[in-house]
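DM from R.C. (forwarded with permission)

"hey, sorry to bug you on a friday — could you get me a structure for this? deadline for the figure draft is monday and I only need the backbone to look sensible"
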Amino acid sequence: MIFRLVFGIILFFSSCKESPSLEPVEETVIILDTDSPMIKWISPSFDSIVNEVVTISCEVTDTSGIVSVELWVDSMKTNLLSMAVSDSTYTLNWMASNYNGGNKPLLSIYAVDTAGNDTISQNIRVIIDDNHSYPEPVSLYPLDSLFVDSLFSGYIVKWWNSGDQYFKKYILQKSTNPLMLENAEVFSTEIISTVKYDDYEYSYEIVMYYRIIIEDIFGKQTAGNVVSTSMMPMPPQWNIQSVRYTTDSLIVNWANPEFPKYYSHQLLFSDQKDGNFEILAEYNNPIMGQYEDQYFHLSENWFSILTEDSLGRKSISESYMHPPPQVPDIDSVLYYDNSFRIQWQEEPDSDFDNYKILSTEGENPFNLSEIKFITKQTENTLNYNNVIEGKYYLFQIITTDAWNLETRCPVIMASSFNKFFVTEDNGSVDILYSVLTNGEGEYVTVGQVDQSSSWYLKVNESGDIEASNNLGSSNSVYNSIVERSGGDYCVTGSIIVNQDKNLLIENIDGDGSVIWSNDYDLEYPDAGNAIIYLNDGNIGVTGFAHINTVNQDILVMKINPNDGSKIWSTYIGGEERDEGHDILPTTNGGMYILGETHSYGDGDGDIWILELDSDGNTIDTLLINIPGKQIGYSFIKSENGTFTIAGETSGSSGVRDALLIQIDELGEVIWVLSYGGIYNDIAYSLVYSGSGWVLTGQTYSYDSGGGDAWLIKVSESGTFEWMQIYGRSNTDIAYDIDIARDGGYIICGSTFIPGNQNDGWLIKTDSRGNVEEIISYP
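My reply, with the result:
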């Protein structure tokens, strides 16, 4: 026998009815943090369109704490440190003023923890677009006369206060030309609250014109309206309302309100916002508010309207550039039978030229390549075939117009797994306790209906129900199921006979019909919690038996699979409550039992592992005695001899956390993970996914109301990796999990439907617990 105290946990082997005395020696254990921080990028997303200022947000977590979170751009340090806005969320503003429109810099986050471990995130590409990021214009008021000692001395020029967050300065210009040609700068200030200037230089003979310019910190300037020293108001600005293209022509619409002494107006165009405008069309009729004719595009296409009155005064509108195509957001991605069906938003503008659909298997967006080129504007759906099951794919759509302006949608991820929620209502209280993936890839699950009959449910890989049978009577329930080699199943649970609870074991065929059924009139009231096929071909069952009103023992039974006849049964326990929750086969026809004991340890509840030989004799027991309450509901024995156990733990506060603990074959604790929040959280079932451990159960700490089903992924070394939550506003719970044939997970439990109470619930996810078809990227 081996006795150890590791991390304050007492492990000991003993006979099944004894609790040995042990005086442990305290060990000083130094835990070194060798894990790098984990970085989850939040925003911006890959290929986001950004302007000069980019708000960057990420989630950085680490067990020992974060020292610094720094932005890198194009693999170069920026010395910009992120600020924590919550326990794990960091943000910063990066000014991309050194990049021109169309540039695509790569952003990444570099993080260091207190132990000196560092990591760098994936690269996120963004696209700089500075065409529409000019400051808002500032308007001038009509001029006021300036008097000094009752003598007219000039003009008072006033303007609106700028609200631009990147304000740099005001520039006041003066000219003899209404279009502000050959203007002179008469005043400038970087004080945003200064909104007035007294101009003492004036002339009675010449009409003067004023305009205020606002400049931002990036050097971008926007001109405001023009006012004059004349008593007559200036012609109004006729602003452009829309610009629509076809392949070789365009339609421009503008507002044309009436004004006194109208003379003419012109449609102007340029390849720059503030460039040299040329005349595209001239009009002498004020009702003309639309241009439609041929037009040959420039590198950029800016338009403006010039209005003129009969006094020769002119006003020019704000420059307007037709925006690129709308973002072709992907509305849905549906996976079925090795094919994705992708649908996106249709481009509304008539200058449409093409859609490009890009994809890549895997998660490197730099490997995206074109899989389809579409020139029909209304064709916004693609069936993408020859998809490999159980993989992750990235998709992106680019819309291009007739002038080679293009818009990219955010990169999205989709997984080639069947995913579904199945909610089945057979009565007022329906619960599914155990689930497995059978040899055909179908999902078979059992439970109870209305607390009065056991329930067998089978669905196919797409979630379609193939069989749903209420079996038994007199308050029978199925708690666990195992598949037999011939395609039928054995289940265990309990049934009420003569007002006593009896262990129930049944053999069920693939359609849900009972082949044979045995309820065992044992010495005490009892029930089965778990069932397994043993290496000698027989069946092992564990559960509990009520010895008396106070004493409950672990029940273990071995039966013949052909008719369910008992080979042997035994009770294991002390003077308090003990129970068997899970069972595994040994190599010699024996079994391991995962038990809960209140008879030994501290009495609050401890994890108890027993090893029995093929005849039911107890070979060894292992008690994990931690202060507080610990219960193991599910366990796995690995090829290297380690046990990994999932369940619950609670300290003096009484709040439960999900527990995952791994011990080696000598009984030493390798690692312990306790995960949860301020409310009760629990893990009921455990699987090994090939890259770590996946637990399912119920959370009240992270729920949306009333408790939710959840999925937790833990690395092989016991580090938390991710969590998924499933639920509505009422009580939802997951009791069991199995790995699907495609590598995803099938979860069973129940969900509360208002007015309908509990319904049975099956959840099929991908290998990361996603049920949604579109997964945000990154």
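R.C.: lifesaver. The domain at 420-769 is CATH 2.130.10.10 (Methylamine Dehydrogenase; Chain H).
me: no worries. The longest strand covers residues 352-361.
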